[in-house]
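Below sits my pick:
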Amino acid sequence: MNYSKYYPIDVLNGEGTRCTLFVSGCIHNCKGCYNQSTWSPSAGDLFTKELSDQIIQDLNDQRIKKQGLTLSGGDPLHPANVDQILTLLKRVKRECEGKDIWMWTGYLLADLNVKQKQIIDLVDVLIDGKFEKNLADPSLAWRGSSNQVIHYL
């Protein structure tokens, strides 16, 4: 799995102060996407054990209390990402007490395969659905277009 950016402190992509990972790889190719540079699964840098360790360390850092982890992209549920995302989320749930997980995906919750559903079982808030430029609305909380749904799991 590759990633495009990691922010150890983020207040824009979910409630509270968070750690945010933007992964690479997206098949949806939404018109008007603000993150087209992440569409290729090979874009960005290789996700390593060192970065995984850093995310866990940052989530547990008591100097700046983090509410949780956000995963965006690209698409965390892209086939090239699911194995490492599943491993990362299991670590977060095991090693980071009380942290929530937010995820954005272009896939619809109802259409996920078995492996993707294993990931969703570890997610607290899922925003699903492709970005639809003709339904874009900057006044929406946590969504870019009105077709996208916030699932509090």
User: Anything to note?
Assistant: The chain has three helices and seven strands. The longest strand covers residues 2-10.
